[in-house]
UniProtKB/TrEMBL annotation:
Keywords: Hydrolase. It is an enzyme of class 3 (hydrolase). One of its GO terms (biological process) is pentose-phosphate shunt. Its EC number is 3.1.1.31. This is 6-phosphogluconolactonase. It comes from Pseudoalteromonas xiamenensis. GO terms for molecular function: 6-phosphogluconolactonase activity. The keyword Hydrolase applies. InterPro entries: 6-phosphogluconolactonase_DevB (IPR005900), 6PGL (IPR039104), Glc/Gal-6P_isomerase (IPR006148), NagB/RpiA_transferase-like (IPR037171). Residues 11-226 form the Glucosamine/galactosamine-6-phosphate isomerase domain.
Length: 236
């Protein structure tokens, strides 16, 4: 089991300010101690305001590497691109000086593009200091989707990343082909923050935590991960 610390906030605003403060402190500390900080970022509505705020803080962004946690296999100009979202929120203002590691390249499929993505993630050369994960009502986190093609590999590989083809659902929408941090990629992070929004997803989180089949709710693989420092932030 991961070492889990849970914070249930009374509002989205409070969660945002606590998240921004945590990121500010941990990235600054990583720069102080090793001259470089690495931040893994997810899309979703939960971290948006914290990203926007953080971009306005002069953290020494030239020493920060921002890397995607997961991505749809679409170009960065696509409206569903997580990269586009990160560029429009976090990589603005002072944040524009950060180095950015994409999960998308010109290969026609995620499987064909995977080796270049893996190469780029290994080239970061340092474990992620902080990794931000989201989760949804199907129990997915990063792009570890229930019973997806590639899930088994993503859960057992020593690689940092994996190609996924999810089963289409209301949560995935029509774009099911994705790249993601593998379970190993998540587990090598020094600190993982799981963001959960709303009562429904809180119930899903509690269900995942109670145990059961990992492939049904891949979030369980993260919760079960030994030696992982996991902080859960929930807001209504
Ligand atoms: O790539 C994606 O599909 C999204 O980034 C997704 O995984 C998101 O993190 C969750 O759906 C939680 O979203 P909320 O933060 O909006 O609850």
């Amino acid at each position: 089991m991961a070492t889990i610390t849970e914070h249930f906030f009374e509002s989205k605003e409070v969660m945002t300010s606590k998240l921004a403060m945590l990121l500010e402190n941990e990235l600054s500390e990583a720069i102080r101690t090793s001259n470089q900080a690495v931040l893994g970022v997810s899309g979703g509505s939960s971290p948006k305001a914290a990203y926007e705020y953080l971009s306005t803080v002069n953290l020494g962004w030239a020493n920060i590497t921002v890397a995607m946690v997961d991505e749809r296999w679409v170009d960065a100009s696509h409206e569903k691109s997580n990269e586009a979202f990160i560029k429009a929120t976090l990589l603005q203002n002072f944040g524009a000086a950060a180095s950015f590691v994409t999960m998308k390249n010109s290969a026609p499929t995620a499987i064909l593009g995977h080796s270049d993505v893996e190469y780029a993630y290994r080239a970061i050369g340092k474990p992620f200091d902080v990794t931000i994960l989201g989760m949804d009502s199907d129990g997915h986190t990063a792009s570890l989707f229930p019973h997806a093609d590639g899930l088994e590999e993503a859960l057992k590989t020593d690689n940092l990343t994996a190609a996924i083809n999810a089963i289409e659902s209301e949560v995935t929408g029509s774009i099911t082909e994705r790249m993601t941090l593998s379970l190993n990629g998540i587990a090598t992070s020094k600190h993982v923050i799981l963001l959960i929004s709303g009562e429904d997803k809180k119930a899903v989180y509690e269900q995942a935590k109670a145990g059961g089949v990992v492939e049904d709710m891949p979030l369980r693989a993260v919760l079960n991960q030994k030696d992982l420092k996991l902080t859960v932030f929930w807001s209504p």
